[in-house]
C-alpha cells in the first residue's frame, strides 16, 4: 500500500525528465564557443537532472519520500525560475548581444527566486509566469531574428509547462504534465543552442 505522497506516474515522469536532461548534458559538451555559455548550458541541464532525481525519490519512495519534500520544492523553484533565463542568456551570447544584457537576464530571476523560496506557492506561481513570459519573449525575438526555429518550440513547451499544466480536464496529474513539457523544453533548448 502506498503512502499519500507516493505517485509512481510522477516518479516515472521525473525519470524521463532526468534522462532528457542527461541526453542534453551529454550532447552539449564543449559545443558552446564561450566559457560563459558552456558553463551556463551545463548548469541548466544539471539543475534539471538534480531536480528530477530528487523528484524520483520524492514521488517513487512511499516510505521516505516525504523527507525530501521541502528540498524538492526548493529545487523545483530553482528549475522553474532559473533554467529559462539561462537558456536566454546562452542565446544572447550566441547572437552577440551586449554582456550587460546577458548579466541582466541572469540577474532577473534572483529576486523572484528568493521570494518564492521564502514565500507562498501563489507568489512562486506569479513570479514563474512573469519570468516565463519575459524569457519566452527573449527566446522568440532572438530566434526569430536569427532564423532559429527551435526557439519557437522551446517557447511553446515552456508556455505549456507554466500556463497549461494546471488544466484538470486532461485527467493527467499537473506535475506529470509539467515534467513532460520540461522534457520537450530541454530538448528544444539544446537544439536552439546548437543550431
Automatic annotation (TrEMBL):
Assigned keywords, A-Z: Membrane, Transmembrane, Transmembrane helix
Residues that span the membrane, as ranges: 6-28, 40-59, 71-92
Name of the protein this chain belongs to: Uncharacterized protein
Species this chain originates from: Phyllotreta striolata
Amino acid at each position: 500500500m502506498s503512502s499519500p505522497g507516493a505517485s509512481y506516474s510522477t516518479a516515472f515522469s521525473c525519470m524521463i525528465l532526468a534522462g532528457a536532461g542527461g541526453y542534453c548534458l551529454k550532447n552539449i559538451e564543449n559545443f558552446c564557443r564561450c566559457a560563459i555559455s558552456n558553463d551556463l548550458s551545463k548548469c541548466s541541464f544539471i539543475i534539471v537532472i538534480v531536480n528530477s532525481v530528487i523528484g524520483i525519490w520524492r514521488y517513487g519512495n512511499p516510505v521516505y519520500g516525504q523527507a525530501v519534500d521541502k528540498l524538492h520544492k526548493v529545487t523545483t523553484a530553482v528549475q522553474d525560475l532559473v533554467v529559462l533565463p539561462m537558456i536566454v542568456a546562452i542565446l544572447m551570447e550566441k547572437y552577440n548581444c551586449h554582456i550587460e544584457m546577458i548579466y541582466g537576464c541572469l540577474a532577473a530571476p534572483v529576486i523572484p527566486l528568493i521570494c518564492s523560496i521564502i514565500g507562498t506557492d501563489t507568489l512562486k506561481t506569479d513570479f514563474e509566469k512573469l519570468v516565463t513570459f519575459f524569457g519566452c519573449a527573449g527566446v522568440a525575438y532572438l530566434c526569430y531574428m536569427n532564423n532559429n526555429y527551435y526557439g519557437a518550440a522551446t517557447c511553446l513547451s515552456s508556455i505549456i509547462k507554466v500556463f497549461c499544466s494546471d488544466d484538470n480536464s486532461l485527467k493527467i496529474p499537473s506535475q506529470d504534465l509539467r515534467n513532460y513539457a520540461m522534457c520537450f523544453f530541454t530538448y528544444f533548448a539544446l537544439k536552439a543552442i546548437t543550431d
